[in-house]
């Protein structure tokens, strides 16, 4: 492989960065697992960073290797994005079974983080629809399946620490068309929101939440329910771009409150049903290039946790803390998660558990970092966990206590990568590769 020297790069949050040598191979045969793999770096923190070391950029390995139109089994290279798969296969009657909030996530990254989507309450997480994974370990290649037991569970959601994911076979899900029939309705307060989430039987459900609302309006927002459908495609709108870092006052508390109030009122009190493209429904922010620049040159942090169903009150308390802080941005989401397929999680370090997940963005400021530490403590006390695809601030002690299967993962990762060649800034910060 050819290495580009001293490249500086960051995760999507831009609060942390790294400098090191990066290779961008075009053939898997040239890859040796002597450095961690990275994709489009849509993880927000330091999971895709290896400061002072090497990294292998997999994004040029984006080929479709095989597709069975009858069964929906699709074999692809790890660098292809979920947005591209949605674009190609939705018109043919198939969709990736699970997609996150951005179509720029690669298949390899989706496996390494075991991403979840707006249908976790029905479909579980991404890796529960993967039938095989090709791993490069050292200079050898292995194909693993769910029958590979411990290695499979350590790879799914395993932060890329068991080998470089070079290829995967996915079970796509059949769809009625490449359009979405979307019903939007207001949630007037916290209890109303939880009731709407609990009562939804839609294929896809997600809720934007006004993280600035307090008092009787605490928890207000918009619930979206979506079903695939056929229909006329709306007039396409061009992609917008954020050309420069926004000034620090652009997300000040008064501006965010005003924006959130307007956004809440965009949906009539009686609700509405509209038709959107699949891309607009699944990946709404992808229409704005470099939207992370809205937080300015210092970047931002996202706090995302999940708490068990019987701890919704703890999440409500967190929302009150956030609202009173005046630090939240307009980007805040609350969803319900299911138990996973067959009541099981895909991997030892997979994030989803049955419960409610909250994700909120904060500009990278000292007060926000202190707030996130308080929210982390509340999550731990509620028996919840943080999502490592978003984290940049937690401690190893906290993460290890949140993930009870961590020791199993650490043992398998140590065996798969005995020299620690695949470590990243995140695994070092959290001391995840040390077995204790």
From TrEMBL:
UniProt keyword terms in alphabetical order: FAD, Flavoprotein
Record keyword Flavoprotein present: yes
Residue ranges constituting the FAD-binding PCMH-type domain according to the UniProt record: 5-175
Molecular function GO labels: FAD binding; oxidoreductase activity, acting on the CH-OH group of donors, oxygen as acceptor
Taxonomy, superkingdom: Bacteria
Name of the protein this chain belongs to: Putative decaprenylphosphoryl-beta-D-ribose oxidase
Annotated organism of origin: Octadecabacter arcticus 238
Top-level taxonomy: Bacteria, Pseudomonadati, Pseudomonadota, Alphaproteobacteria, Rhodobacterales
